[in-house]
Design a protein that fits this description.
This protein is α/β, with parallel strands linked by helices. It is built from 14 helices and 6 strands. The chain is 50% helix and 7% strand.
């Protein structure tokens, strides 16, 4: 677990993982509902001449239903659906789902929520579903943990998963948190990709038929086989804030070595520099707010001075191109 956290911090250039909220997906995470969804998708799409398999349903899980429908129609019939047409087809799918037996609550998840709430976590649900009965069920079955105000649905976003927008809105709902202040819990590849794109520590709980690699390949920071295993890991690891002295030193040393070797500053205009850029942004905020120890502040000032010195040597990148780098720029 500690290894996964360290790798996440290095990957995104953050100084710490200090969770204040947990952002849960719904289907396959809170509710054991994916087999029902798969059956409903197959039945409903067949009425429109769309050949959709249960495997297709699992592969597109997490995506807004209307987006899945528009994709399938474009692929098989070569036409672009309007939002109204897609919504009508999605309503047919919702009706098919409503006729199936009610899905059970995922084993272990309520106990996990209880532990998280005790640890001071805010609980947010981020789902690609737009089925209102399911949304209403959340506040009933998870009373005391989930509120209507803390649920993001397909109707609250312009771009559904795998776009990061749903989870970025989740951060806002949780109190305008930064990515390192939350944890995503997902079970679907597209949902994992969304959490990873939002730069949030993404836990995948593999409750479906897909191999673990389908989740790790999309950027899951760690994969668990079930909710009970994740709950035990939470008790051991996630409810504490890790001291990050070693990680801070590693980040500082890496950037100083980079500048001295390459004779230039890390730049947002270079993709390979983005981890260093993120590390600097995070630490510059703490530096400006006086939240660094005296020892760190002294070293960070050295880093800023070194970057300022190399600024004059980088005219070929910034001055001549008109792209003046803002990261280290002093306010007038």
């Amino acid at each position: 677990m500690k290894k996964a956290i360290k790798e996440y911090l290095v990957k995104h250039g953050f100084g710490q993982l200090a969770p204040k909220a947990v952002l849960f997906d719904m289907d396959g995470v809170l509710l054991d509902s994916m087999s029902n969804h798969a059956k409903a998708w197959v039945e409903a799409m067949a009425t429109y001449g769309i050949d959709m398999t249960e495997a297709d349903a699992y592969a597109t899980e997490g995506q807004r239903g209307i987006d899945t429908i528009r994709y399938m129609v474009k692929e098989q019939q070569g036409r672009d659906l309007s939002m109204a047409e897609a919504q009508a087809m999605y309503d047919t799918k919702a009706q098919a789902y409503s006729k199936l037996p009610e899905a059970e609550i995922m084993p272990g998840v309520k106990e996990l929520m209880k532990r998280m709430k005790k640890d001071g976590m805010k609980i947010i649900v981020v789902t690609g579903s737009g089925q209102l009965p399911l949304i209403e069920r959340l506040t009933r079955d998870f009373h005391g943990y989930v509120t209507k105000e803390n649920i993001i649905t397909a109707y609250d976003v312009k771009h559904g998963k795998p776009d990061p927008e749903p989870y970025l809105i989740g951060l806002e709902k949780a109190g305008n948190l930064q990515p390192w202040e939350a944890i995503v819990v997902e079970n679907a590849p597209l949902g994992v990709r969304a959490g990873n794109a939002a730069e949030i520590f993404t836990v995948a709980v593999n409750t479906g038929p897909l191999p673990d690699s389908a989740l790790s390949d999309e950027g899951a920071d760690i994969v668990f086989p079930d909710m009970d295993t994740f709950s035990k890991a939470w008790k051991r690891s996630f409810h504490v804030t890790y001291p990050q002295d070693e990680m801070w030193e590693n980040g500082y040393n890496a950037i100083m070595h980079y500048m001295m070797t390459n004779k230039r500053r890390p730049s947002k205009h270079h993709a390979e520099d983005m981890q260093m850029v993120n590390w600097i942004k995070y630490n510059k905020k703490n530096f400006a707010r006086g939240k660094m120890t005296a020892e760190r502040a002294e070293k960070f000032q050295i880093l800023l001075d070194t970057a300022k010195r190399f600024r004059r040597l980088n005219q070929y990148t910034y001055l001549n191109s008109g792209m003046e780098e803002e990261l280290f720029k002093e306010k007038e």
